[in-house]
Write the structure tokens for this entry.
Amino acid sequence: MGYLDYVKHGRKLFVKRGQLPVYLVYFITDACNAKCKHCLLADGAHPGWEEPSMTYRKQELSLEEIDKVSASMGKGSLMFLLPTGGEPFLRKDIGEIIKI
């Protein structure tokens, strides 16, 4: 099954389930241990970078915020969950986030 098949299947579920979301992208953190040239986090243009010293302050969703967003999606509607942001595996509570 390719990506387009998933999209078509997800669209059918979306309509059948009363317009509830089936795909959720969580920007759970902007912490990252890579310096990718194409990434907004690496070039200093991200809101987490403060002028003039360019020190970085990490911004993350709390477990409570993640739980609140998840609850608002409708029980059992999500087929696809993508935790992203910076590098989600840098969070020590990634297992708890996935369980939510």
Summary: The first helix runs from residue 3 to 16.
